[in-house]
Design goal:
With 96 residues, the chain is α+β, with helices and mostly antiparallel strands. It contains three helices and five strands, in the order ααβββββα. A hairpin with a 6-residue loop joins strand 3 and strand 4. Helix 1 crosses helix 2. The protein is extended and about 60 Å long.
Length: 96
């Protein structure tokens, strides 16, 4: 599912809302999550999961095409951990 499909699905389920309003709501939520992560905050949505930022140290990498060593700078990467409710719903058909 892509963002536009999500917006259409939410708009269909909530016929009292205009699609442009749903688009604004979805975009605002995603922008707020991104802004919080950019500040280094953690975003937890109970039952869904938690977004956080992890730091990766600088390291020496290797160009896969040439094999040459390259310097990779320290960087921040987004991390998502699923919530218990989501994990259970995803695995309810698996009785392993």
């Amino acid at each position: 599912m892509i963002k536009s499909e999500l917006i259409q699905r939410i708009a269909r389920r909530n016929s009292h809302l205009y699609q442009r309003d749903v688009e604004t709501i979805v975009s605002t939520i995603l922008d707020e999550i991104t802004a919080a992560l950019a500040r280094g905050d953690r975003v937890e949505l109970r039952g869904f999961g938690a977004f956080s930022v992890k730091k990766r140290d600088a390291r020496t990498g290797r160009n896969p095409r040439t094999g040459a060593q390259v310097s990779v700078q320290e960087k921040s990467v987004p991390f998502f951990k699923t919530g218990k409710e989501m994990r259970e719903r995803l695995n309810e058909n698996y009785q392993g």
